[in-house]
Specification:
Blueprint: E1 8-11, H1 24-34, H2 41-57, H3 67-84, H4 90-123, E2 128-132, H5 138-144, E3 153-156, H6 157-160, H7 168-177, E4 184-188, H8 191-200, E5 204-208, H9 215-219, E6 225-226
Parallel strand pairs: 1-2, 1-4, 2-3, 4-5, 5-6
Length: 240
């Protein structure tokens, strides 16, 4: 980090605030295991990717959908793929979709509840903006979890038409803060989608490293790596 004092913070949302840095596929996989769905992890990952592509292709998620509704729709798509490809029965799909969605929702709520006091403390000293690759409903998600008021502005990929790792989406966040890149701190869970693009435009960065999507991500290191959101309270250049 440079010598410029940080004056504002840009947060990623999914993975950073709602899962302690873990890729969301890991959260959902744990829910599958908790519900005793007997499939291999690689099969699950195929269903996960299918659902993500379907959600990007077709507008299933509405702006008013909170995270539970989003998860219910996502699980229905995953379970339908698993059924269509013979990995589970239609009966199991109908029985398991809702419990898996609820398991994931409760996990996210627990993480956000842990994050809230930290975010509140930071927001009392710094203007904060959220920059997220999301489905067009992140405002509803943040409102449901009681943290929308902490962010000056939301920059959401589905709304602005720019997705990470395109650094322009972080430039929008810097502009929303009304600051220079070197005066901002970007906090994210993805080295490739958050940290590298934010660094490329001159922002300071903090990487919350959890369980990644690939072995390469798990093996990667970076000087900005921190253990979790709480570490930001003692972060270099963040003077309260």
């Amino acid at each position: 980090m440079g010598n410029t004092k940080i004056k504002g913070i840009i947060f990623d949302y999914g993975g950073t605030i709602d899962s302690r840095g873990d890729h969301w596929s890991e959260v959902i996989w744990k829910a599958y295991q908790a519900e005793n769905i007997k499939i291999e992890k690689e099969t699950f990952r195929l269903a996960y990717v299918h659902a993500e592509r379907e959600l990007a292709r077709v507008r299933h998620i509405m702006p008013q959908d909170n995270f539970l509704v989003l998860l219910q729709k996502k699980m229905e798509i995953e379970m339908a793929w698993l059924t269509d490809n013979g990995f589970i029965t239609a009966e199991e799909a109908s029985q398991k979709a809702q419990p898996v969605a609820m398991h994931c929702y409760n996990a996210a709520r627990q993480c956000v509840d842990e994050a809230r006091p930290i975010l509140e403390q930071l927001a009392s000293h710094y203007p904060m903006v959220l920059v997220s690759n999301f489905y067009g409903n992140v405002e509803a998600v943040l409102t449901d979890f009681g943290i929308r008021h902490l962010f000056k502005k939301i920059i959401e990929s589905a709304v602005v038409g720019i997705r990470k790792p395109d650094p322009r989406i972080f430039s929008l966040g810097v502009d929303a803060l009304g600051m220079k890149p070197e005066e901002t701190l970007v906090v994210g869970d993805s080295l490739k989608k958050d940290i590298f693009p934010a660094e490329s435009i001159g922002c300071n960065v903090a990487w919350i490293k959890g369980k990644g999507w690939t072995p390469d991500e798990d093996a990667a290191t970076h000087p900005s790596q921190i253990a979790g959101l709480k570490s930001l309270l003692n972060f270099d250049n963040l003077t309260h």
